[in-house]
Amino acid sequence: MINEQYKKMLEGKSVIRQLSEFATARGKEIGYENVFDYSLGNPSVPVPEQFTEVMIDLLKNKTSMELHGYSPSLGIASVKEKIAENLNKRFGMNYTGNHIFPTSGAAGAVAHAVRCVTKPGDEVLTFAPFFPEYMPYINSSGAVLKVVPANTDNFQINFEKLEEMLNENTMALLINTPNNPSGAVYSAETLTALADLLYRKQEEYGHDIFIISDEPYREIVFAGVDAPYVSKFYDNTLSCYSYSKSISLPGERIGYVATNPKCTDAELISAMCGQISRGIGHNCPASIIQLAVSEVLDLTSDMSVYETNMNLLYNELTNLGFSCVKPGGTFYIFPKALEEDAVAFCKKALDYDLVLVPSDSFGVPGYFRMAYCIDTEKVERSLVALRKFVKENY
User: Fold this and answer.
1) What is the C-alpha to C-alpha distance for residues 357 and 41, in angstroms, rounded to an integer?
2) What average pLDDT does the segment 189-203 reach?
3) 167 and 94, same structural domain?
């Protein structure tokens, strides 16, 4: 008999993926350039030219075994040391290579981190709005994900609801800043208050509570916005990072878990991740990609287009009467729909070839997400369709 759990999961296919597939099919009918596809957060800017040069140099000058052989189970030592040194330089930390565990992107990092600090039945809290894939990430580990309701005023943490939901079964909080889907960036004030609360609760409950900090958008922060490094605020933090967004490498699946050196059993976490890999079949990212990213740690793609697109959309949406918290980073914007049923709202938008994602699966009904990692020229043309949609329906 096949596994009923995964069979049942087929019934809950990602709304984002379904809309992306719709956009692709519609594009075959009318030309994809005429479909205003805001569904999928797939980075649209090129990788830095220097990354391409590094890849060529590696292929020309490294041996086949160095590039294509198995990496050590805990990652390539020289790569881990370079990542640690870079984080120390940027954020004033004290990582060593032993605190870094390379993974298949931030998803792989979260999958390892949650298994390091929970056992089946433990609770993990996250904050709405949240990335819907957190549900399978956490629940498939045997832990149970519970969602703290949103603070829709600014999409910072709803501390009143958090205090109500924290309990002795809470072993970790999964946070995402800058946030998908809201674009909100947790402030130093928010992170200080969160750390103070968790230190107090650790003492009250008599056990560790970890922060699993999902940080793939860490480098996409807009002018005038500060994006504090979470591990600076709270010792029991595991930082989960990906190069998918910073240097536009989503298809290469490369990231890491960085264990705060001050966290409980910090020297064991990476080794434990290696053992977790044996159970989930992870077995490290490709050697060549580990080596390549370690040579471009101070680089990002030219991501200025994201802020340009954000400002275009924010200004138009607010002019049209939408309520919207201005994003501080990422390439997402999360306005309130013009009717209570966001699914119905987004379905109507499809008639104008506007592909928008309803917010129900993000844990905040009545909103919608736009992933604006597309060409600015296409954003500008989409505004005509958006105006027509609003005028004819609302």
Assistant:
1) 11
2) 98
3) yes
